[in-house]
Amino acid sequence: MLIKRFQDAQPYEAPNHWGVSGLRLQGFEAGGPTNQWIGYSQFLPGGGAGPDSTPFEKVYVVLEGEMTLEWDGRTEVLRAMDSCTIPPGQVRRIENRANHVCKMLVVIPYPPKPKSE
Description:
By secondary structure, the chain is mainly β. Helix content is 0%, strand content 56%.
């Protein structure tokens, strides 16, 4: 079992994101999860990500505030304790259009391991 304290979380930079501060809560450490990592993102008003996609699925959980999600010509607002699963290859854009910080958990699988020859 691995217990990590919030004070020990390390920052990370997510590509194609703006107005956000990300912390890695779990993942990429000895004794941690073996198939995914957990990020904690704080999006300032006007902060967001995309439009882009990833080759793997991910899960967003809004803890506080709200996040506008756009995909396939659709728009939805996720609020506290709402969540969504984004399938592999799904182009999406997210933006905090509110005047309060949006706090989210992000669950992302580890990248595939290179095949040994």
